[in-house]
Write a structure and sequence with these properties.
The chain is α/β, with parallel strands linked by helices. It has a single domain (4-222, 251-319, 343-348), classed as TIM Barrel (Alpha-Beta Barrel). The protein has 16 helices and eleven strands. The protein has helices at residues 26-29, 41-47, 51-54, 74-83, 99-111, 129-132, 138-152, 173-183, 193-197, 226-237, 243-246, 271-279, 284-287, 303-307, 310-318, 329-339; strands at 9-12, 58-61, 87-92, 116-121, 159-164, 186-191, 200-207, 210-216, 258-261, 267-268, 344-348. Helix 4 runs parallel beside helix 5, helix 5 (99-111) runs parallel beside helix 7 and helix 10 (226-237) packs antiparallel against helix 16 (329-339). The termini are far apart.
Amino acid sequence: MLDINNVKKIELEITSDCNAACPGCARTLHSDLLKINSFSLQDLQRIFPTTNHIADKEFKFCGVLGDPAIHPQFADMLEYVLQHGAKANISTNGAVGTADMWRRIGKLAKQYHQKFSIQWCIDGHKETNHIYRVNTKWSVLERNINAFCETVGEYTYRAQWVFIVFDHNEYELDIAKQHAKRLGFKFATRTGMRNSYHQWISHIGKKNNKQKKVITTTGKNEHKRKDEVFKLDKLIANNEIDDNIIKTISCKYVHEGEIFINAQQQMWPCCFLWDSAFKNKENILEKLSDYPDSWNSLKTHSIEEVMQHPYYMNVLEESWNPKHNKHIDRCIRTCAYNKAYQNEIVEQK
């Protein structure tokens, strides 16, 4: 059983709002299900009231549905966890927020450089980034990066430019890499299994009141472990998951001491199960419907109380067995074979 003392990492979805409309994002694919929720600095302080809850843990400001930088109190939240001894990691498309906010974040990054990191998720350069990061503006992104760099000083290496390589943006890969080098940022490419399953259709720009459609494909830049994931898919479809496969699961909650808190202040074991709950994939909400509506709510319970719920105490791990009445295939697909499904980020020299 985990308790707050041995939680190592907390992913925070402080808002489900976003400036972008990435075609592979759940909020774009299921816009009919989307409700904009956010929690405040005061909510964060209530959920994490003491140094015991914060110090030496890693707080990842990311999420399934939103970009943290769109939240008006984002910098305040970042400062709160850093002041209390936490590590902080940011993942953002970067083309949102004011220049003043990014200067403030740069100052925090400089002050707490040993415990700060940021991933700027920029999939292309000036000509192509908006094709997947739909609705983002290069001029705003560049302004924000420059504002951050004005105040972060010599610690620009705490920033990483993360580039998903598609067929349409591959020609800008070297341009982006050189730009990152000039900024002092690290540069990395990312592959995702979702992009090996799907070709996304981006709707960009307007001409005669019609949006232009661009099909984004990964081509030779597909996820390197996709064959393992396809094998798991086949085993799941044929009901051939056995104990040997279950033993290969590397669970963010059980094995890595990580929790996920969504914009509704619900605590989930990981971003994947929250994604499934948002979509009600595999009828996860029905499978958990014998629990009270507030069973994982941090509006009414402390983290410690949620951790003592039967789901976290026993059911989560037991449900990896396909015979369990709360089994979710998602746990096998995303975390078996030692997380074969999950994103690969490879730093480039």
